[in-house]
């Protein structure tokens, strides 16, 4: 069965959080809150919790059914997740660049989004 759209989004955010090789307490709390409140089935919620226990990689899915606004929103949330622990690493930068490409967010749009997120200074 294909992964639901919301579970794919949670996987993306988890991959950003894990990009530096560890999941900080702040990142885990943020993801946990999202998993608890998201509209997920019990099986999806259990699967999403696994993203907290084991390093998660960025899925190779292309969310072509999303509007440009939704893609920007996903990218914005991923940027916030990258700096929620107050550390923005080179590996997180590389992962966000890859995510930007998967989502089809233009570089200038990504720059505008990142300018709105405090703590994103690595470019």
Summarize the structure.
The chain is built from six helices and no strands.
Key features of this structure:
mainly alpha, globular, 6 helices
The helix/strand class is mainly alpha
Number of helices: 6
Number of individual domains: 1
Topology order in helix (H) and strand (E) letters: HHHHHH
Strand content: under 5%
Q: Give the overall form.
A: globular
- Based on CA atoms alone, the radius of gyration comes out at 14 Å
Helical content band: 55-70%
Could you tell me how far the N terminus lies from the C terminus, measured between alpha carbons in angstroms?
38 Å
Largest sheet: none
Q: Count the E strands.
A: 0
Whole-number mean pLDDT: 86
Which parts are unreliable, with pLDDT below 50 for 5 consecutive residues or more? none
Layout of strands and helices, then pairs:
Elements: H1 5-18, H2 25-37, H3 42-53, H4 68-83, H5 90-103, H6 107-115
Helix pairs in contact: 1-2, 1-3, 1-4, 1-5, 2-3, 4-5, 4-6
């Amino acid at each position: 069965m294909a992964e639901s759209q919301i579970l794919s989004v949670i996987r993306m955010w988890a991959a950003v959080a894990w990009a530096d090789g560890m999941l900080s307490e702040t990142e885990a709390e943020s993801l946990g809150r999202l998993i608890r409140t998201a509209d997920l089935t019990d099986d999806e919620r259990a699967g999403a919790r696994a993203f907290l226990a084991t390093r998660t990689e960025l899925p190779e899915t292309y969310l072509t059914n999303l509007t440009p606004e939704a893609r920007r929103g996903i990218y914005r949330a991923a940027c916030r997740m990258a700096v929620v622990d107050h550390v923005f690493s080179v590996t997180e930068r590389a992962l966000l660049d890859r995510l930007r490409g998967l989502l089809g967010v233009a570089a200038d749009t990504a720059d505008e989004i990142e300018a709105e997120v405090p703590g994103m200074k690595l470019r």
